[in-house]
Amino acid sequence: MDFQLTDDQRALRAGMRELLERRFPRTRLRTVIDGDAERGDGSGERGNGGGGLDRGLWRELGEAGLFALRVPESAGGVGLGLAEAVLAFEEAGRALLPGPLVATELAAGLCATGLCAMGSFESGRAGSLAAGVAQGEAVVTALDGGGAPVEHLAFADAVLALGPTVVELIPAEEVARSTEPMRSIDPATPLHRTAPSRTRPEQAGPGRSAIAARLRREAALLTAAQQLGSACRTVELAVDHAKRRTQFGRPIGAFQAVQHLCAQMLVRAESARSVVYAAAVTEDPGDIAAAKLLADEAAVHNARDCLQVHGGMGFTWEADVHLHLKRAWVRAGQWQSAAAAEEELAAGLVSTVETCL
Question: Residue 107: which region, alpha, beta or left (left: phi > 0; alpha: psi -120 to 50)?
Answer without folding.
Answer: alpha
